[in-house]
Design goal:
mainly alpha; elongated; Chromosomal Replication Initiator Protein Dnaa, Chain: A; 2 domains
């Protein structure tokens, strides 16, 4: 589409042609703001010129100047926010977007237990040697929103650093063993199907 007037759902036609207006759009506040911002007695024409100038030479994306990729404001406001911004004491307190939307940590851990044919409760015993325990921690941490702190209890641990030990073992196994990589791939395939059903 070369012009917003060509897009069926665009609000542009209503702002530039009265016969194209719809009841659920409040046009007047925008025109009033335009007149106040840019002056002049014809905000409709000013709006049209603004849009069409942007089609010829698109404006710079304001998000390119956003602090940390998300915050847009004046320099003074940004300084205030930066001063209040606190880095978490533990890196595991920050949740990251994961690839498997809709998968709960408990589902991920249960899927691994089922794959290895062990009781889920076996993973919650400290120093448990239950098959797949390290891999369950790896899957739950890498593919859900759970932090290390949140994963400590399901694995019978008191501190997030202890979960890190499970992850390190799992990652070492995956790195050196084709068998473990195959197991992980099969588990992920099952989990992906669960995520698709959510």
């Amino acid at each position: 589409m070369e012009h917003p007037v060509e897009w069926r759902w665009s609000s542009y036609p209503g702002y530039t042609l009265q016969r194209q207006q719809v009841d659920f759009v409040a046009y007047q506040p925008v025109w009033d703001a335009w007149a106040g911002e840019f002056g002049g007695k014809d905000p409709v024409r000013a709006f049209r010129r603004f849009v069409e100038a942007g089609l010829v030479e698109p404006p710079r994306n304001p998000l390119l100047d956003a602090w940390e990729g998300w915050l847009l404001e004046s320099e003074k406001f940004l300084r205030t926010i930066k001063n209040k911004f606190k880095t978490p004491n533990q890196s595991d307190q920050v949740q990251h977007a994961r690839r498997l939307d809709g998968i709960e940590p408990s589902d991920a851990i249960a899927a691994v237990a089922i794959y290895f044919g062990v009781e889920l409760d076996a993973y919650g015993v400290r120093r448990s040697l239950a098959a797949g325990r390290d891999l369950a921690a790896h899957v739950a941490h890498r593919h859900t929103t759970a932090t290390l702190r949140e994963l400590a209890a399901p694995f019978g641990l008191n501190h997030p650093n202890s979960v890190s030990n499970l992850l390190c073992r799992a990652e070492a196994q995956i790195k050196r063993s084709q068998k473990h990589r195959k197991q992980l791939a099969e588990i992920m395939q099952k989990l992906t199907k669960i995520g698709d059903r959510e």
